[in-house]
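Incident log, support desk, overnight shift.

02:14 A customer reports that sequence design results differ from what the structure should imply. Their input is reproduced verbatim below. On-call engineer (initials T.W.) acknowledged and began investigating.
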């Protein structure tokens, strides 16, 4: 049984295939304490884990209650009763007091996993998951607090969520309600978080736990490019393949808060949930509040295994799209090709050339609607601009279909330009504080999606567009953060609910979109990866990873993003050179190899390419069809430190049955004298006993030869090697006498 309860000892044991989590309830006051999380341990009498806690029980040392509350490991720490460490729950009573205490009352263990109303969450069938609900109470406030743990049978995953029900006769205010806490014994841990900015998302940071707090958070109204809603706590010795790692990822797309604290009693506490800074929630008598889900992953085999577990979980238990296990059409997006300067003739030319190269869908980006000739107008007016697109989208989509291409469309439904018909008709629909100037960003404001009439007003327009054109793909963008938080729809004592209600509104419309158009391929975007989180993945199977399409920058960005999110979720396109974000010039092959490890596409004007470049695109699109199933469904192994690439970067994806594998190697900098020692790569994740043939090795042939040498640099070899040899003795990369060159190796099991 994955969840067991020892009634005599008041111990709950939660087991996944390789991990165990133990919760203990203390006698008398029924505090819910945390006793263990780590490698799987067999069933036996574990009550000794309580001993130091019982020894400091306040019943024994009544005068020491505060010291006790501040010293014990708790499952769901609350504010105001002596635990001064970072906490999960803070409640304001109707009298204005802030204190809450949590005592166990009862529990339920059942098969399966319930949904969280109005919020995204991982899902599982009856046989795939067991759920434990600990029902607790604050007796003074008459508050019921349910701690929910769902334990996956086939993955080392435990998810946590929380429900608070006000069973008193008067309202209370939730000032902080985080989704969960992990307690660690000692300080001997490091913390991994992901930070960045626009066009530099998901950069990897590792710092030690010390006598302080390390906070990762967003108060921007979305999960943000600046910080990602994930943290990992690692044993000091943990690296890519060894050591203990505890991953935490919040299934939420709004303001979040994660804190790891090395506290005064020499333990470590990690908490995560909705950011309390811009949050307060009025809970009327009889009402319930549901906190978003926190995913906890345990790995005893380093960050690599943590990544593979997250990928499996999200592919199998979070993403719902009909495209989840299908090849996605290769797209060309016109943004970097034309920006706002296009008409139907230009788009049809682009689509026609793209078709010739094996591309399957044209995505029409920003600029097709209202008076949108520049980025300071038109947002909110979702009717086609017939000056640019004569005949409208119905005609354009059928003309594109006639070329043998699918048609996709960009929208940014949450936004409005002051210069728009929508804003002129409904100025109160924008988020704002009356009397205070609205801060513009990209000359736009955010619509108040906490209000139903605002959501409906926008969605009805968009639905009409989709009803009248053959749109098979939507790119949903979101290009600014929330400021001047004020809503005309909320009373003064509920204004602080706006950020969370806004996120609930976004989820509602995303759900309506996929319900009304179930066959749509839906990609999310927020100025690139500004809202790359598991909440969004519940609705759309892919997200545009970054507006930085430079291949070399993408190595780090895609590596950081793939720490938790599957490669199949990461939009990755080949773009023009010099690159529009960095000015860097990289070979077309390199751009193609790096983009292959995501959802593949193009973002350039194919009509301006040479015949030679178009021929490379034809090879690349064919290669995508040949290999994409490995990228989409396989296991990712980071071979070099791709988070901080130096001279080179290397990673591989191995199919689940270990019959096939792909390896990418990028030489960022050519260094002399590195042929023998630097170019040997030890593969990972293969079947050691199987024989593999090197079936394809793509490399830059032009630079593979020493320019001034007489001899051939390369001896062509048809190699068949065992997995053990490839993983231990390794394999040599071709030498390349140029920067930014890339190689791709495909191996498959050899049957003789
Ligand atoms: C930001 C997106 O990330 C880009 O890909 C593009 O769609 C622009 N917005 C269009 O305004």
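02:41 Re-run completed on a clean worker. Output:
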């Amino acid at each position: 049984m994955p969840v067991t309860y020892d009634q005599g000892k008041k111990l709950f044991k939660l087991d996944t295939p390789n991990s165990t989590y133990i919760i203990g309830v203390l006698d008398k006051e029924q505090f819910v304490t945390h006793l263990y999380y780590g490698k799987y341990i067999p069933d036996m009498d574990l009550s000794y884990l309580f001993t130091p806690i019982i020894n400091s029980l306040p019943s024994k040392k009544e005068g020491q209650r505060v010291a006790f509350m501040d010293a014990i490991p708790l499952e769901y720490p609350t504010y105001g009763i002596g635990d001064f460490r970072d906490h999960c729950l803070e409640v304001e009573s109707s009298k204005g007091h802030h204190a809450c205490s949590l005592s166990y009352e009862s529990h339920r263990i059942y098969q399966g996993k319930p949904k969280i109303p109005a919020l995204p969450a991982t899902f599982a069938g009856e046989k795939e998951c067991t759920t434990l609900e600990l029902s607790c109470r604050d007796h003074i406030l008459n508050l019921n607090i349910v701690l929910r743990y769902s334990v996956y049978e086939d993955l080392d995953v435990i998810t946590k969520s929380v429900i608070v029900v006000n069973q008193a006769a008067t309202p209370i205010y939730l000032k902080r309600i985080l989704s969960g806490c992990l307690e660690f014994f000692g300080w001997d841990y490091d913390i991994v978080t992901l930070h960045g900015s626009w066009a530099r998302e998901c950069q990897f940071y590792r710092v030690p736990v010390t006598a302080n707090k390390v906070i990762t958070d967003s108060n921007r109204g979305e999960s943000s490019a600046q910080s990602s809603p994930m943290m990992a706590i690692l044993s000091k010795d943990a690296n890519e393949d060894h050591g203990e790692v505890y991953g935490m990822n919040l299934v939420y797309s709004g303001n979040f808060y994660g804190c790891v604290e090395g506290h005064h009693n020499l333990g470590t506490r990690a908490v995560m949930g909705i950011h309390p800074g811009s949050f307060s929630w009025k809970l009327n008598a009889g009402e319930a509040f549901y906190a978003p889900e926190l995913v906890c992953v345990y790995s005893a085999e380093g960050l690599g295994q943590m990544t593979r577990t997250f990928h499996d979980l999200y592919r199998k238990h979070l993403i719902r799209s009909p495209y989840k296990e299908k090849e996605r059409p290769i797209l060309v997006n016109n943004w970097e090709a034309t920006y706002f300067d296009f008409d139907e003739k230009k788009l049809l030319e682009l689509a026609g050339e793209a078709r010739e190269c094996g591309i399957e869908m044209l995505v029409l980006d920003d600029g097709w609607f209202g008076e949108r000739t520049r980025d300071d107008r038109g947002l909110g007016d979702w009717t086609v601009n017939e000056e640019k697109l004569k005949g409208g989208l119905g005609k354009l989509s059928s003309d594109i279909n006639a070329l043998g291409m699918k048609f996709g469309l960009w929208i940014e439904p949450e936004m409005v330009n002051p210069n728009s018909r929508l804003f002129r008709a409904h100025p109160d629909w924008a988020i704002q504080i009356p009397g205070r100037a609205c801060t513009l960003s990209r000359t736009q404001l955010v619509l108040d999606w906490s209000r139903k009439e605002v959501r409906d007003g926008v969605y009805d327009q968009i639905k009409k567009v989709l009803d009248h054109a053959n749109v098979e793909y939507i790119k949903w963008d979101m290009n600014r953060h929330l400021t001047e938080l004020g809503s005309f729809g909320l009373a003064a004592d509920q204004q602080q609910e706006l950020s969370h209600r806004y996120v609930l509104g976004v989820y509602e419309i995303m759900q309506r979109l996929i319900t009304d158009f179930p066959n749509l391929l839906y990609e999310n975007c927020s100025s690139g990866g500004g809202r790359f989180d598991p909440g969004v993945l519940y609705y759309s199977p892919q997200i545009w990873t970054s507006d930085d399409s430079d291949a070399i920058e993408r190595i780090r960005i895609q590596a950081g993003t793939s720490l938790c999110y599957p490669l199949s979720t990461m939009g990755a396109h080949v773009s023009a050179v010099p690159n529009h974000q960095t000015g860097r010039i990289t070979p077309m092959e390199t751009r193609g190899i790096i983009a292959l490890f995501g959802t593949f596409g193009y973002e350039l004007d194919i009509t301006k390419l040479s015949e030679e470049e178009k021929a490379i695109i034809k090879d690349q699109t064919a290669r995508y069809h040949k290999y994409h199933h490995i990228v989409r469904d396989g296991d990712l192994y980071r071979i070099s430190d791709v988070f901080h690439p130096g001279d080179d970067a290397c990673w591989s994806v191995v199919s689940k049955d270990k019959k096939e594998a792909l390896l990418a190697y990028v030489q960022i900098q050519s260094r002399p004298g590195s042929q023998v020692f630097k170019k040997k790569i030890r593969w990972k994740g293969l079947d050691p006993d199987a024989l593999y043939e090197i079936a394809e090795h793509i490399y830059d042939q032009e630079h593979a030869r020493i320019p001034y040498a007489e001899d051939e640099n390369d001896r062509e070899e048809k190699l068949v090697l065992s997995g053990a040899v490839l993983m231990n003795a390794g394999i040599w990369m071709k030498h390349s006498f140029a920067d930014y060159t890339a190689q791709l190796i495909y191996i498959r099991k050899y049957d003789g």
